[in-house]
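>> received
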Amino acid sequence: MTGRIIRKDLARNKIVTLTLFCFILIASLLVSGAVRIVTEMTGAVDALFSQAAAPDFIQMHTGDYDQGAIDRFAEQTSMVTSQQTVEMLNIDNANLAFAGRQPATNSVMENGFVRQNEEFDFLLDLDNQVVRPRDGEIAVPIYYLQRDDLAIGDTLEVVDGQYRKEFRIIAFVRDAQMNPSLISSKRFVVSEADFTELRAHTGSEEYLIEFQLAEGVDVGEFERVYQSAGLPQKDTAITAGLLKLMNALTDGLVAALVILVSLLIITVALLCLRLTLLANMEEDTREIGVMKAIGIKSKDIRDLYLLKYRVMAALACLLGFVFSLPLGKVFTANITLYMGKVEMSPLTIILPVLGTVAVYGIVMMFCRLVLRRFRRISAVEALRAGGSANGKLRVGFWPLYKRPVRWLNLRLGAREVLRSFGSYGLLCFVFILCVFLFIVPINLLTTVQAPNFINYMGMGQSDVQIDLRRTEGVEQRYTEMLKALSSDEDVEHFAPYVTAAYPLVTDGETSTLRNVQIGDFGQYAIDYLDGKAPQTENDIALSQLNAQDLEVAVGDSLTLLVEDCPRTLTVSGIYQDLTNGGRTAKASLPWRAEDVQWYLVYLDLNEGVDRTEKVAEYAEAFAPAKVTHIDSYIAQTFGSTISQLRLVVVLAALLSAAVAVLITALFLRMLTAKEAHELSILTFLGFQPKDLARQYIFRTLLVLVVGVVIGTLAAATLGQNLAGLMFASMGASRIRFVVQPMVVYLICPLILAGVVALTTLASTRTTGRIKIQNLVIE
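>> returned
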């Protein structure tokens, strides 16, 4: 009997059941997929670091160093298990050309040629095997595989003056240290003989002083010990935790967005489920009364209703999990490419299954909450209401004869929405979610692509950026470059900066404050979370993560050793920065050449000057400086993230439109069934089917307008806060969306309005076929 009841109910409510089934399936699919992304990402990062034997602490260094002092430190420090110093040969982009192409002179990437390491920090091929090129062969970073669409067997040519060397690509490198595009250094692997030859003809040397630490050692504590030992520390220091974070960020942002989308879909599914259950209970009021009258308990009636939804939710969740397996490969393709395929483990299966089970549990718990209403229905009231539940006509004074016919449908539609807005509140809330889901990914994508996103990287917005790293004779080249820019008539104005490291004294202990930018911060200003830019030599501004690490706020003091003398500085401001691990500072301090990490120039060109041509001109004139315009810098640094965000934007747009279609169709189907009596009266009065359809279209569009306004405001406020949470671990917790008004305020609403109007028209096409004999007047 139970089976017959369920089959009859399914046949009676095919569209409703199918709609609910689709919502639950999509929710299960997205939750399972998001959990899989996070699980595979975590597993892939751990597996890559394990197979590559990644170092726990890396100190980058340029210039002379005492390897003997480093060896003695490693031997005497119980924290250290292994140490090696990696020699890296930096070769300018202007000296490299892939497969006969032109050199990428405007690339922000630094190219380091290395030999394969023997102890740890191995560079791996796409099978996660240690790559060992022979003479004339080279292994190229995966970043260039994507950027230049390279293949095994292509060539890379190194040209410096009269020197020319061609390599054949035999592998693409996975590098635990320098994999993601957010890290602007990339390592190429060549043979020992080729490295020696290259070093004799081109490039500049840089060193990676690497340590592997004993299990359980706190990396932060080791860094303090290293710094107090007086060992090389002028350049950037990197920890394994920071490397793992940088490797996970690109796909982590995508996972966060997919989780957000899945939560919204679950919310819509639950609202849709509530609407369906209440509608079914209203339609079945008489049947419920009969069952109660013959002695069937409320619990048994509830279980009868629940059985249908148990079967439907279980099947939808199961199919959602199954469909997430192939769809998940789309989102995890970037993880697989950069970190390798994750070996199947119990967790990679159990966690997505648990996500699916959680969706099923939420659906069933919600059903139980809604069906508690059975307790409040008595048999007498149900039998009395059941006979005329749909036969009551709410009578009001409608002076139809005074109204022009062309405005009558609009007036009736608006009057019904205003009179029964509680019923339309659900539809409005769903439209708010659809708008939010549609707009937030678009705003996030346009924000990351916008030129002023450079502010979140601790940089001022300019036309061109020139970056000069430490090499032999860099001070003289820097001076000559500034002189050339001063006399260039194409330059409107420019500002030079240096980035240096200073000893930091905290509670009697000395460490190093790196990445301190020095210059005039009145030009190319950035936004500050709190406070303002340094105004005097006694001020310093800190990045958000630096301020958190040092536990200081605006107005607090820091003590630096400036030219070997203690100087107390006041924190004047705190800003956001996504570069250098999010840990930088800005000050107006004196500096010494030996303390400089790199030199930087921002410049704006006069109106009408071609930026691309000027960038190429400067790249040739100021080689080996990196010369880029800001759009290119952002595209190269966040290229992988942007491509993933585009995929999420497409998915979110399709889901928003699908949700709007399904919920509108479901709502109108139940609404027209509920209003059958009113519709029969309107038909009797002479309203044509097109008139009734217009009324419903106006109702839904009126509700949609309210939803669009509230959803857009929510996307601009709550959406920004969610974006801040995504970027907080990178060093930017307060993101301001860059909005494209034409897209957000016109195209998106028009798309939703179009699909809602078409759905309404299709759902109400039979409203004029109601038979007059169905009219019941009490």
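>> The radius of gyration is 33 Å.
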